[in-house]
Write a structure and sequence with these properties.
alpha/beta; Spore Coat Polysaccharide Biosynthesis Protein SpsA, Chain A; three-stranded mixed β-sheet; 21% strand
């Protein structure tokens, strides 16, 4: 089976009133989240957008013309960025009266990542959302043999304050050229933009061998989770 590499870009609102069950767009068993590109007329509420190379209205998955048929792993690296640039263009047309106006946090999350929302909300409430800030699991770019580049691993989830994203978003594909992977590209862009980066060990870039109750209820996110893993984790934590 060819993996579709769908990516989820989620937008978390100021009131922090969100309910999130982890979906998985590679398998019909998983529940995919809201697949509607928001407009500036939306109320101040959490929005989650699933973006892939093909649209699937039944599961709430959206796409864009530039993404259609782009199924490979490296091509999939552009999905979140293309979505965000699309929304940025919408903001310019609407004179900033858009989806970004009432948003505090922007999150980029993989489809095979489980998010522990209560723990996430605890951490975000303790963070100063008025400052340019990026939160996640910091790695070094060993894949490119560069130990000088530090970036947040995309698989564990990358969280940005609106202030940080307003700095970085206009630079994507411009002052910040794409560099093979989206998380590495963002890492380089955060560096040249002098945005503060925070490392939290509770964002797990790699799935542990044993998914215990203590682990599941205390970590914020776990990457490389299968549908069965997510269902088991939900069962264990309830």
């Amino acid at each position: 089976e060819i993996r579709q590499y769908c990516r989820i870009a989620s937008v978390i609102s100021k009131n922090f009133e969100i309910t999130l069950e982890n979906g998985h767009c590679r398998n019909s068993v998983g529940e995919i989240l809201i697949g509607e590109i928001p407009s500036y007329q939306e109320k101040n509420s959490a929005r989650l957008i699933a973006i892939s190379d093909e649209e699937d209205i039944s599961r709430g998955i959206v796409t864009l013309p530039k993404l259609r048929g782009q199924r490979s792993y490296l091509q999939a690296q552009h999905r979140q960025f293309r979505l965000l640039k699309y929304l940025e263009h919408d903001c310019r047309l609407l004179n900033k009266k858009c989806w970004l106006a009432n948003i505090v946090w922007i999150a980029l999350i993989d489809d095979d990542t489980r998010v522990n929302v209560p723990r996430l909300m605890e951490l975000l409430r303790m963070s100063d959302f008025t400052r340019p800030l990026a939160i996640g699991h910091l790695l070094t770019d060993v894949q490119e043999n560069r130990d000088d580049l530090i970036y947040h691993g995309g698989g564990a989830g990358m969280f940005f304050t609106r202030a940080a994203f307003e700095i970085v978003l206009p630079k994507l594909y411009n002052q910040c050229p794409f560099s093979k992977y989206n998380d590495v590209t963002l890492g380089a862009c955060l560096t040249i933009s002098h945005v503060e980066r925070v490392h939290l060990s509770s964002f797990l870039s790699f799935r542990p061998v044993n998914l215990t109750f203590t682990l599941i209820v205390n970590v914020v996110s776990i990457h490389y989770m299968t549908v069965d893993d997510m269902q088991m984790a939900s069962h264990i934590s309830t």
